[in-house]
């Protein structure tokens, strides 16, 4: 049972998964419950979304309001709630290369399998928002180098993200990504390509290199099928917002009905059952542990 008798240790498995010919699909979790639901749906990896974490913890947009400690704490809770590998958003690494060293150490100790760090200027924004700014490429290269040297295990993966497409254009973004790969990044993440041609250009620029595509629902990148992305050679596809947006829609609609009718009676058929919810959250495992360790 994750988080009670054993610790999530999916790091080695994640590297093996990324070597498969088909892309690995990673829906975004914003808390431990959404992470458990992703695992129970049969996905092999969970992505801790910073966008969703900000919405869940603060009720605010992803504009750099969350602290390093808040992000690591959420990553730890999510990693301890599931048995599959967790990939976590680590924003810009939370400071200089020296800060990045601690960032890597704390996320690794939290039990996640990988983090991505980006080259935005703090305070950062969601990669699909306007008016972003990026640091000098040399500074990000040093952050990547520090991250690679700081990890205790080579199975803890460093994903280097560049947001330069929106600021400097695609060619400069690709050049930055090349430099981050040379600095030791395990996976490259060129954020927010704005057409299928640009998605293709990223793939052609890095043959044989593990590539991440952020399938940000409603964002700047056009929706492409898993089959098309596999054909292009992408290794990892994030779906950061589906669970968050679905939950938000369902809650808003249901709460309107609750307010109108003064009771949940009109929506009872839509609700997860009481016992089913207890099963989802692991009560059977708790009962088994109670049986085993009872005096």
Short précis:
The chain is of the alpha/beta class.
Describe this structure in words.
The chain is of the alpha/beta class and 295 residues long. Helix content is 47%, strand content 12%. It is built from 13 helices and eight strands. The chain has helices at 11-18, 32-40, 50-58, 68-81, 97-110, 137-150, 165-168, 170-182, 196-205, 226-232, 242-261, 274-280, 283-293; strands at residues 24-29, 46-48, 86-89, 114-118, 157-162, 187-190, 211-214, 236-239. It has an eight-stranded parallel beta barrel, surrounded by nine helices. α2 (32-40) runs parallel beside α4 and α4 (68-81) packs parallel to α5 (97-110). The longest helix has 20 residues, at 242-261. It is globular and about 55 Å long.
Rg estimate, integer Å: 20 Å
Mean pLDDT: 94
Q: Return the structural class.
A: alpha/beta
Total beta strands: 8
Low-confidence stretches: none
Number of H- or I-type helical stretches = 13
- Morphology: globular
SSE order in H/E notation? HEHEHHEHEHEHHEHEHEHHH
Cα-to-Cα separation, first versus last residue: 21 Å
Quaternary class: single chain
The amount of helix comes to 40-55%
Strand order of the largest sheet: 1-2-3-4-5-6-7-8
- Main sheet properties: 8 strands, parallel, barrel
């Amino acid at each position: 049972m994750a988080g009670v008798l054993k610790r999530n240790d999916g790091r080695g498995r994640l590297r093996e998964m990324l070597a498969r010919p088909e892309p690995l699909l990673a829906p975004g979790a914003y808390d431990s419950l959404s992470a458990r639901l992703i695992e129970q749906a049969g996905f092999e990896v969970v992505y801790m979304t910073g966008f969703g974490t900000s919405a869940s913890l603060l009720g605010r947009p992803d504009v750099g309001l969350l602290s390093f400690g808040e992000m690591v704490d959420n990553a730890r809770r999510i990693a301890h709630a599931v048995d599959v590998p967790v990939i976590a958003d680590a924003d810009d690494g939370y400071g200089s290369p020296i800060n990045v060293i601690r960032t890597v150490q704390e996320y690794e100790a939290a039990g996640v399998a990988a983090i991505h760090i980006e080259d935005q200027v703090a305070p950062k924004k969601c990669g699909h928002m306007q008016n972003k700014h990026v640091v000098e490429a040399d500074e990000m290269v040093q952050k990547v180098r520090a991250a690679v040297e700081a990890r205790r295990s080579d199975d803890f993966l460093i994903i280097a993200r560049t947001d330069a497409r929106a600021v400097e254009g695609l060619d400069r973004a690709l050049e930055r990504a090349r430099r981050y790969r040379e600095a030791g990044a395990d996976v490259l993440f060129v954020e927010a390509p704005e057409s299928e041609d640009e998605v293709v250009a990223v793939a052609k620029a890095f043959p044989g290199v593990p590539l991440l595509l952020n399938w940000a629902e409603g964002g700047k990148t056009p929706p492409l099928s898993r089959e098309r992305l596999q054909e292009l050679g992408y290794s990892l596809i994030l779906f950061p917002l589906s669970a968050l947006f679905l939950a938000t829609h369902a809650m808003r609609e249901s709460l309107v009905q609750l307010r109108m009718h003064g009771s949940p009676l009109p929506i009872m058929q839509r609700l997860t059952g009481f016992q089913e919810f207890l099963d989802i959250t692991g009560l059977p495992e708790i009962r088994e542990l109670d049986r085993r360790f009872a005096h």
